[in-house]
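pinning this so it doesn't scroll away 📌
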Amino acid sequence: MLGDGYLHLHTYKYDVELLVRDYEFAEEFSRAMVKVLDRNYKKPCWSKPHNRWRVYYSSKSFYE
């Protein structure tokens, strides 16, 4: 993933996170993750430390 997002591998957890200033972009990213992962929609939340909108999902399929 390039840009404002990143993948992070924990010992047993596989994460993808997007941090952006554009709320509409964060919403669209979340809608795309719902389609790709067949999961429930997560509304972007405001991250005070980063001063950005945050969308966060976990899935091992990101690393396969």
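📌 and the second one:
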Amino acid sequence: MNKEILCTLGPSSMGPEVIRRLDELGVGLFRINLSHTKAEDVEKVIRQIRSHTSKPICLDTEGAQIRTGNFAAAEVVLEKDSLVTIPEEPVPGDARQFNFYPEGIGPQLRAGDRISIDFNAVLVQVVRREGGKLILKVINGGKIGRNKAVTVERPIDLPVMTPKDLQALAIGRKMGVRHVALSFANHASDVDEVRKHCDPDTFVIAKIECRNGLVHLDDISAKADALLIDRGDLSREEPIERIPWLQKYIIRQAKKARKKVYVATNLLESMTVSPGPTRAEVNDVINTLIDGADGLVLAAETAIGKDPVGCAEMMVRLIREFEKGFDFSRIYRHAPVFWFTGLSGSGKTTVAAGIQALLEKSGRSVLVLDGDEIRKYFHKDLGFAREEILENNERIASLCASRRAEFDVILVPIISPYRVSRQAARELLPGSFYEVFFDANLECVMGRDVKGLYAKAKRNELPDLIGFSPASPYEPPQKPDFVIKTGSQTAGESIKAFYRFVCSKMKENDSC
């Protein structure tokens, strides 16, 4: 694969078998999300990953963002119109009070500030300050938990990295981690700040997930080694309906700067709980690749999802489908069928071989269903009685239908003596069916007798030879699509004329 998969490891994917399988599938970078990893666990997590893969590890910082603190329970419900206290000192959070993280955010908030928590799951507003505490009123109630994103509807000054980030980068540097993702890159100077805490050869990915990042995109691109579009956090500050346009814009600017660009958030989100993606997700992934993304990020899908390996397998399938390209005419093509008819010895096999050679020389794929070969290898059970000939023709037509999508052209050099069978073939093969009549009378084919069949018929060794025996008459077509005059044309002339006809029909059929 030319496209990259960045995979977030978490509770669902830290097992040895899962890490090894993700490695085998082609995951290029394993991501540790510091927003969900304790500082004291970073070294242990790095060692755990490295014990099962040699692929590089990326430390993804918390960055300049506000989150909820710890709660006593997994989640709490904030009721509409209730009051909530935000103290400065750490507390075990509940429905009456909890903390914002990092520390020191409270003094920057003031009465009237509207604050959304966990992507608008809850909306609160600052009503007053009481000493060192903030009092918030719940405008829209709902469930929240620890470490959920908090968005204030005005700019707030935040440090580029949290104390945990600095501690984790120091550990990573000591352990040789050479990939770092900077969350919430606001300015080019933020990239410089990160580099101060990394080795010189560290690959720094700047995450574009806030309005400042968009405003200073070109400067950030110049400083970073790559960009990552976090569509989820970006939608906290930008209208969600604008995200597709912003994705295309960021990718375009990254390409201008000759920097790699990755895309994250909700790519296969439904697969955190379901065995397969939605149609909308599949469409999103392919279109993101069409936009020009160099890589895709699996986050919750592999960190906490039910089937992290299944998610990665699906992503590999989608990337391979994209890289293979899509040619409608090749996948769903409807190859024209040229159905020959004429007496034995009228030149059908010779012309078919000549046309096949010319088409294959021009790069076209050709299927030739020669009547004699079909009988010899596949339809040995059929004789030459009328009903058996009709059955043979029907089987050949069905074979054409089943293999029409595999070739550019199908040639069927058979006698096909009966009008009813030719009409049945036309109905079974609608769209591009052409009846080709090899016009040669009995005297002509007996004079040629390339297979010696007529000599055998004269000796009564072939009692049912079509067109020779009165019991097996040949029924010439009334309105063939093309006529080859075997008696008055050389084989070369017939092939040349028929080749022009075949090419004209291929063009009509979008196959040439």
